[in-house]
Amino acid sequence: MNTELYPLQFDPILKERIWGGEKLKTVLNKPIESKITGESWELSTVEGDVSTIANGVLKGKSLTAIIEEFPNEILGTAVYSKFGKQFPLLFKYLDAREDLSIQVHPNDALAKERHNSFGKTEMWYIMQADIDARIIVGFKEDSNKAEYVESLENKTLLNLLDDVKVKAGDVFFLETGTVHAIGAGLVVAEIQQTSDITYRLYDFDRKDAQGNTRELHIDLALDAINYDKVDTFKEYTKEINQSNSIVDCPYFTTNFVPLNGEIILNKNGETFTVYMCIEGDFEIEYHNSTFSYKKGDTILIPAAMKNYLLKGKASILEVYIS
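Structure tokens predicted for Phosphohexomutase (322 residues):
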């Protein structure tokens, strides 16, 4: 391989949403121009929304192009063996000025059958929360399809769903089938399977600028929903200069790294690593080069980078596939 790989950053893919705001600019310094920007896709190979490298000698190349050229070196030997040349995860920041729609995502089998897609297991890290901000996650008590359908007909769905107040630093892990909505007043880092399949159940009867309501997917959702009460909140430790486990599932592993000083990393080349800087500033030192990062940055460490140093004072989400 002639090109020596290095920590990769990508141009954010900015998405206007009816519920979006301006915090991706004011909190995370994203280059938004709209007052309703709801999402910054940081790292994506979703068709039509493929990330483009923003730094270094590979600047301007797409993520899919460099994976095609260097699959083992970018993805890692184990990830390439399992997923081929697909990048299996999608990384986003979200700004909810208003409540998002109540929605659900199908599992792998259903998504494959209906959409030839992965399912959408995901996790949320709450980066910023207004006073009394909350999320909706699952049912308050075990329910069933009949009770759920009746609640839709009577417009009482919210009475069945669990409403949870949140604060910065809270983490929620949402397996496929979990009915959910991010509430107003939140900035969230989201890590998920590579999928854009969402079934919208209820949108608070909102209308867009043209007076149209958004499409709902009531029938598709019926067989996708887990009607049992679920526990989505994740406790985790915060030991300084350590990788503190938050989520370890078949689709991704996420650790919380409170960096204060230096950490030497030694990797085995089996998986890429992604860092999301959720607070502070840090640097990566690799082969006599230094790369600097700030809050809101997302960095892809190619699997070929086996030895490097993290340095600074920051809170970082560390994500890989184990």
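The mean pLDDT is 95.
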